[in-house]
Amino acid sequence: MLASRTGVSQLSRWTHLQRSLATATRATQQALPPATSPPPPTTATPSDIYDPKFVNEVAENSDLNFNDTGLAFKNKTTFDLIRAYAVLRICGIEPLVARSEKLIGLSYSVLGKTITNFVVRHTFFKQFCAAEDEAGLIPLMKRLEKGGVSGILDYAVEADLTTHREERENEVKVRVYEYEGELACDHATEVFESCIRTAATVSQQKGTRSRPFAAIKVTALGNPKLLKRMSEMIVETRRLFQRMEDDLERPTIGSLSLEEWRLAYSKYFVDPEDPAMVDELFYYVLGREPSSGEEPPPRLDIVDWSRSMNIDVISKLVDSCKTRGPLAEVALTEEEVELSRALFGRLDRLAKLAKEQGVSLMVDAEQTYFQPCIDANVLMLQRHYNMDGTATIYNTYQCYLKSTDERLSQDLDRSKREGWKLAAKLVRGAYMVAERKLASENGYPDPIHDNIEDTHACYHRNLDVMLADADAEVMVASHNQQTCEFTVAQMSAYNIEPDSGKVHFGQLRGMSDHLTYNLGAHNYSAYKYLPYGQVHEVLPYLIRRAQENSGLMAGAVHERGLLLKEITQRINPFANRVSASSNSTA
């Protein structure tokens, strides 16, 4: 029950609401300024809007208690709890987790795949994964529903850049990308289609009010090398806009007038036979028809520029360049153009099916060298499938990245300009080790926030922006109890009902059950992320999850304490079941 309905004073709630709205407005203005303001900083302000006094006030006046182990674990057997406790303890041993890939390889060599996979299947797989195929998902999802929780189906296949086989001496290579790779992407598309249909079927069978979700990874639908090449092209296109403005003899304001556009075009591109084409391109990028006497005169900013820069437009710009510059160096080949269209075709096929089946499609975030390509494709899907006020397509924002404030605010602004609903999943991030290693090896600035406090602040700041916007939807994908408490408090401040459909909570299977099940039991929209696949397919997923979250696992003392408390209560039924008064973070 929301605290605003159970005793929090109207004055307190109104004061907090005003403060939150002001903070959200400032965050948006800083990240995406008007044309007359200085450009946004590349590093977000690390202030945290988390107000512990208000959060505690809401918690004290609410029936929701994240430490209620009886409610959280009522659908778990004692053996389930013992396994969960043991697995979380093992995952908290960081030296062991760091060597997990080598240990699995050693076990394969010594014990063989059959025995190794059997052990993994009945321990870590059972804890963190849902099933080996779609058929195994259905009974699990029905059990979840009994606890007020729904599932997000995730076929746990993922890919990264790999070293290609060396060419044989004197062999003529016809194609850079293997035909087999495209066939694998087509197969992954079919698997994701099955996943979407399963999500819809289970939802229909159980007659639930909750929305069915399915998750996809873009690296499963296109060659990772292609995604990296596309990302490089997109980044250089944005840098070109920045160079155009930097060349002007005036302070940077983040936009170009028509006259400034003409000057920039004449510097970088060959003059067209018809001079009017330069003006036509300006208005094409703006997405509007030319009009005389418009006040104030239109200005072209990075949001307009990024929206209009599709593959065909970029190709024409490259062909028109006066000299071969950075953009020309990363322009796609004809083969890559065709493959990029095939990639979007697969994504569009999945989005269309999801729309038809009433399923929301959640696109996972991946490494930063893939993300510009992922974002560009997701934006195209959102423009088409989120136009009618429904959130069919969700994009994911990693709040451990310094660029997240600017990126989310720009996307929110795009959605307002173009009339579609922004749907966002907020996560802290799962590639920190790999990202920092790559930045160090390649000599560019670390894209990750300097400390965990800045990441928490970024998460809360952007979550508040999403909650403050009446049209946006958000998935709070977090295992942090403090963040969940903050979300509940902000929902109270903004008068957002638990079952409004605007806010969803999501945690991975096998983690933070005390958050998911207590939220679900109190009518909040609560989900478990359900990765599935054959054991050998999901091993990379399990290893990466363990390695990237080893710090989280090591610090999950509170969660393990709740498990141990419930185990003790069941073994000794005469023990007093006293809810822990601590609100510490899991």
From TrEMBL:
<keyword id="KW-0560">Oxidoreductase</keyword>
<comment type="similarity">
    <text>Belongs to the proline oxidase family.</text>
</comment>
<feature type="compositionally biased region" description="Low complexity">
    <location>
        <begin position="25"/>
        <end position="34"/>
    </location>
</feature>
<protein>
    <recommendedName>
        <fullName>Proline dehydrogenase</fullName>
        <ecNumber>1.5.5.2</ecNumber>
    </recommendedName>
</protein>
<keyword id="KW-0274">FAD</keyword>
<feature type="region of interest" description="Disordered">
    <location>
        <begin position="25"/>
        <end position="50"/>
    </location>
</feature>
<dbReference type="GO" id="GO:0071949">
    <property type="term" value="F:FAD binding"/>
</dbReference>
<dbReference type="GO" id="GO:0004657">
    <property type="term" value="F:proline dehydrogenase activity"/>
</dbReference>
<dbReference type="GO" id="GO:0005739">
    <property type="term" value="C:mitochondrion"/>
</dbReference>
<feature type="domain" description="Proline dehydrogenase">
    <location>
        <begin position="189"/>
        <end position="551"/>
    </location>
</feature>
<dbReference type="Pfam" id="PF01619">
    <property type="entry name" value="Pro_dh"/>
</dbReference>
<keyword id="KW-0642">Proline metabolism</keyword>
<dbReference type="InterPro" id="IPR029041">
    <property type="entry name" value="FAD-linked_oxidoreductase-like"/>
</dbReference>
<dbReference type="GO" id="GO:0010133">
    <property type="term" value="P:L-proline catabolic process to L-glutamate"/>
</dbReference>
<keyword id="KW-0285">Flavoprotein</keyword>
<dbReference type="InterPro" id="IPR015659">
    <property type="entry name" value="Proline_oxidase"/>
</dbReference>
<comment type="function">
    <text>Converts proline to delta-1-pyrroline-5-carboxylate.</text>
</comment>
<dbReference type="InterPro" id="IPR002872">
    <property type="entry name" value="Proline_DH_dom"/>
</dbReference>
